[in-house]
C-alpha cells in the first residue's frame, strides 16, 4: 500500500554492534526503496557481515565488545568511548533534510533529532522494551532497563519481538530466503556464539565427539576442521544455509537468530551474554517457547547438550505481519507524525552540501 505519491528521502540509522541489526536492514531496505531514496547511517565497529547497504554515513558510534568466555569487555568499551566525537557527529548529521528518519537503536541519530527537533521512528527489537508488557527476567536490572528505554529514543515506537506483547509490537522480520526455505535435518548443530573464543568452544564441543558442529567464527577466513568441529567464516548466506539444514542451533539470546531458528522449527539452545540485560529479557521470552537457557559453558555442558538434542522441539513462532506489512506501518506512522512548516518545506527541496560526517 502506498501512502504518498511523493518520493521520500529516508534516513535509516542502523546500530552495527552486532550482525542482527545489519541483517535486518539488508532485508528491509529494498522494501523502503519502493517509497523513495534511502540513505543508511551505520554506527558501530564490531559487525562481521559485509553490509550490502546504501551507506551514506558511518561512525564508530557506541559499540559493545565481548571477552572470550561469554561476557562483555567493559575495559575495551570504555577505551573506545569518545563523548566529544559523538556530540560533534550528532550536530553534523543532517537529519532535517529527510522526510522520514527511522532509527534502529542508534544513539547519535536519536541525539541529532532531539537537538534539531526532528520527529523520528524508534524501530526494531529494542523499541519493544518501551512497553511494560515485554517479558523481563525475575531479577530486574534498573541500569539495564534505563539503557533500553533511553539509549535511543524517538517520537514514535514500532517494536519487534517474538510475540505481540503490546499494540505497537509486531512479529519478527524474517529474511525472505528463510521464509522460502525447506528445512532439513542433516545431523549437525549450527553454532554462533561470538561472545566466546574459538578455543573455549572447541574444547567444549570436542567432548561431544559423536555430534558434528558447524561453528561460525569471526576469527577465521576459510573453513577449518578441529575434530568434530568445523570452523566457518561468518557470512549471511553461509549461516542461513547452515541453520536451515541443522538438527539444532546454539546461539546467544539475541533476537534475529533465535527468531529465525524458531520459525524454521529448529531445536534451540541459548547462552545469553553475561551482563547484557537485553539478552536476559530475551531469554525470559524464549523460555515461553520451551527453549533451554544456560548461563555459561561449564562441566555440565556436555550432559546439557545431549539432553537438549534428545528433547522436544520448541513451540512454533507465529508471524502475524509480513515484511511488507511492517514497512507499510513504519511509513504510515512516519508520515502521520510529520508536520512540516514552511521553512522545513523549503529545506527539503533546496540542494544542500552539508555531509561533513564521515561519508561511506
Task: Describe, in plain words, how this protein is organized in 3D.
This protein is α/β, with parallel strands linked by helices. The protein folds into 2 domains: 8-174 and 320-348, Rossmann fold; 176-309, 3-Layer(aba) Sandwich (Rossmann fold), CATH 3.40.50.2000. It has helices spanning 19-32, 74-80, 83-92, 107-116, 142-150, 176-179, 198-205, 236-244, 256-263, 277-286, 301-309, 323-336, 342-348; strands at residues 8-15, 36-43, 55-59, 100-104, 121-124, 156-160, 169-170, 189-192, 213-217, 224-226, 229-233, 248-251, 267-270. Strands 3-2-1-4-5-6-7 form a 7-stranded parallel β-sheet, with helices on both faces. Strand 4, helix 4 and strand 5 (121-124) form a beta-alpha-beta unit. 40% of the residues are buried.
List the helices and strands and how they pair.
Layout: E1 8-15, H1 19-32, E2 36-43, E3 55-59, H2 74-80, H3 83-92, E4 100-104, H4 107-116, E5 121-124, H5 142-150, E6 156-160, E7 169-170, H6 176-179, E8 189-192, H7 198-205, E9 213-217, E10 224-226, E11 229-233, H8 236-244, E12 248-251, H9 256-263, E13 267-270, H10 277-286, H11 301-309, H12 323-336, H13 342-348
Parallel strand pairs: 1-2, 1-4, 2-3, 4-5, 5-6, 6-7, 8-9, 8-12, 9-11, 12-13
Antiparallel strand pairs: 10-11
Helix pairs in contact: 1-12, 3-4
Amino acid at each position: 500500500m502506498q501512502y504518498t505519491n511523493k518520493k521520500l528521502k529516508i534516513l535509516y540509522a542502523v546500530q552495527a554492534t552486532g550482525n542482527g541489526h545489519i541483517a535486518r536492514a539488508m532485508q528491509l531496505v529494498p522494501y523502503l526503496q519502493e517509497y523513495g531514496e534511502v540513505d543508511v547511517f551505520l554506527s558501530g565497529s564490531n559487525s562481521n557481515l559485509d553490509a550490502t547497504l546504501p551507506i551514506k554515513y558511518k561512525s564508530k558510534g557506541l559499540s559493545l565488545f565481548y571477552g572470550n568466555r561469554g561476557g562483555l569487555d567493559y575495559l575495551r568499551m570504555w577505551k573506545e568511548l569518545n563523548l566529544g566525537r559523538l556530540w560533534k557527529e550528532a550536530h553534523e548529521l543532517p537529519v532535517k533534510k529527510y522526510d522520514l528518519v527511522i532509527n534502529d537503536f542508534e544513539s547519535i541519530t536519536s541525539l541529532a533529532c532531539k537537538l534539531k527537533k526532528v520527529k523520528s521512528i524508534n524501530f526494531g527489537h529494542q523499541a519493544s522494551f518501551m512497553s511494560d508488557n515485554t517479558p523481563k527476567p525475575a531479577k530486574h536490572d534498573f541500569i539495564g532497563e534505563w539503557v533500553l528505554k533511553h539509549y535511543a529514543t524517538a517520537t514514535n515506537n514500532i517494536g519487534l519481538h517474538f510475540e505481540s506483547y503490546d499494540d505497537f509490537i509486531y512479529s519478527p522480520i524474517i529474511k525472505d530466503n528463510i521464509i522460502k526455505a525447506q528445512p532439513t535435518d542433516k545431523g549437525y548443530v549450527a553454532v554462533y556464539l561470538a561472545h566466546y573464543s574459538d578455543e573455549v568452544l572447541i574444547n567444549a564441543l570436542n567432548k561431544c565427539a559423536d555430534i558434528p558442529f558447524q561453528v561460525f567464527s569471526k576469527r577465521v577466513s576459510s573453513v577449518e576442521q578441529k575434530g568434530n568441529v568445523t570452523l566457518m567464516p561468518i557470512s549471511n548466506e553461509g549461516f542461513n544455509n547452515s541453520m536451515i539444514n541443522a538438527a539444532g542451533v546454539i546461539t546467544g539470546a539475541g533476537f534475529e537468530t533465535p527468531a529465525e531458528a524458531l520459525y524454521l522449527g529448529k531445536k534451540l539452545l541459548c547462552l545469553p551474554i553475561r551482563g547484557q540485560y537485553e539478552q536476559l529479557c530475551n531469554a525470559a521470552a524464549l523460555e515461553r517457547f520451551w527453549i533451554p537457557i544456560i548461563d555459561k559453558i561449564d562441566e555440565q555442558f556436555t550432559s546439557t547438550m545431549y539432553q537438549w538434542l534428545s528433547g522436544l522441539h520448541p513451540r512454533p513462532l507465529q508471524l502475524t505481519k509480513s515484511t511488507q506489512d511492517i514497512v507499510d506501518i513504519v511509513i504510515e506512522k512516519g508520515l502521520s507524525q510529520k508536520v512540516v512548516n514552511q521553512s522545513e518545506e523549503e529545506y527539503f527541496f533546496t540542494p544542500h552540501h552539508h555531509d561533513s560526517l564521515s561519508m561511506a
